[in-house]
Amino acid sequence: MTLTPVAPLPEHEVRVRAPGKINLSLRVGPRDEDGYHPLSTVFQAVGVFEEVVATPSETFELTVSGPQAEVVPTDDGNLALQAARLLAERVGIDTGVHLHVVKDVPVAGGMAGGSADAAAALVACDALWRTGLSRDDLLDLAASLGSDVPFSLTGHTAVGSGRGHLLTPALTRGEFHWAFAVQHRGLSTPAVYRAFDELHGHDTPAEPDAEADVPLMQALRAGDARALGAALHNDLQTAALELDPGLAEPLAVAEDAGALGVIVSGSGPTVAALARSRQHALVLAAAFTASGVADRVLTAAGPVAGARVVSATD
Ligand code: C5P
Q1: Are 180 and 48 in contact (CB under 8 A)?
Q2: What residue ranges line ligand 1, CB within 6 angstroms?
Q3: Once rounded to an integer, what is the mean pLDDT over residues 52-81?
């Protein structure tokens, strides 16, 4: 009698995808006593994704692959590892996890790649350990990890207040198409906020003006890319340009190539250009490449969902 070999059980693994974001509008108030700035912002999650694969391990470990993998810290400074540890502590798990991050969102690019990793790690470990935590519990943990992590969990399009962590979903119609000029030289978010304080500390209104985004919200509801392009706004843009004057080039290139609007994404240095269509996004990307103003060029559509399990094995 011949025995059919038993296929080895696949290692228990959870794979989660989380998107990068842009701030369609970012309005910044004065620094508070905790060192943070009150924000009124409109986030949109776009189809540039991080993937985090969680497998059981005795210890907490992290590996990274992808275009800029070598510049990502793999020690305790990594936000995804911090997320896994925090969740383990919260639910009393006394084992570790191995996280493998496949990076595609630009590193230190103003598109919340590190926050996406943290959100993905929370969702992956939550599924691996079957914690039974509610979505609100995960959102609380996310907010304690970083201002952008809750949005990386929820995705789509949302208005952010507080530090950017208090979210209200925004109604949108259809898809918007983007081209991104990515720089390998990142910008430090705290440094950009410090430059903002120096430039605008004296004239910043006590509360960021959410009312100013009414036309932007109308454009989103109507699915009107032209009106959205005209309404894009970033209070941090002058500060990012002060620290990295070369960013004027991709901004100008996108305008010349007929972008409906172009802004520095979040604290930069990624430049996001809004296109008329998917084809036009490719034209904008080609213009970035041809003029040599970007280290890497991406196109993506938004909005897309937040951190989600894409596959899991038992
Ligand atoms: O919350 P997160 O750790 O991502 O913030 C990184 C840094 O960005 C903060 O230490 C602070 O300097 C700056 N920041 C800010 N105001 C915000 C969000 C971030 O000043 N609303």
Answers
A1: yes
A2: 35-37, 39, 146-148, 163-164, 189-190, 193
A3: 95
Same domain, 230 and 146: no
Give the domain range for residue 293: 176-302
Tell me the mean pLDDT in the region 39-62. 98
Please determine, for residue 228, whether its predicted confidence score (pLDDT) is greater than 60.
Answer: yes
- Separation of 72 CA from ligand 1 center, angstroms? 19
Greatest CA separation found in the chain?
86
Decide if 314 is inside a domain: no
Cα–Cα distances (Å) from 207 to 212, 272, 294, in that order, read 12, 26, 35
The reported pLDDT for the residue numbered 204 is 80
- Bridging pattern class, strands 96-102 and 60-65: parallel
pLDDT at 68 over 80: yes
How many beta carbons lie within 10 A of that of residue 312, not counting itself?
A: 14
pLDDT of residue 5: 53
Question: Tell me: the pLDDT tens digits for 230-241?
Answer: 999 999 999 999
Of 141, 169, 197, the domain-final residue = 169
Same domain as 253, residue 160: no
What's the rounded Cα separation, in Å, for the pair 228 and 262? 10
Q: How do residues 199-211 score in pLDDT, each as one tens digit?
A: 987 778 778 888 9
Identify the domain boundary among 131, 146, 169.
169
The residues pairing with 57 across neighbouring beta strands, listed in sequence order, are 96
Structural domain includes residue 312: no
Mutate to test the pocket of ligand 1, among 23, 28, 37, 86 (most ligand atoms within 8 A of CB): 37
